[in-house]
Amino acid sequence: MTILNSTITCPECGHQETETMATDACQYFYDCKGCGALLRPISGDCCAHCSYGSVPCPPVQVAGESDLPGCCNA
Questions:
Q1: Which helix (H) or strand (E) segment is 19 a member of?
Q2: N or C: which terminal CB in the chain sees fewer CB atoms within 10 Å?
């Protein structure tokens, strides 16, 4: 079962926000609602949810960990 809600924690200010993720795409950028920082994925991750969220994005959940680097390039 795919989890659609992820709590993103801003590495700049620590603000946490629960967001609903798209099921068919990754969200590369995320604007922190606490400090306004523009979050980008950490090298090796496909999106902001995979880097800063409590669960990875739905495409990664469906593909499995072995397909992580190419999950959004298909």
A1: strand 16-20
A2: N
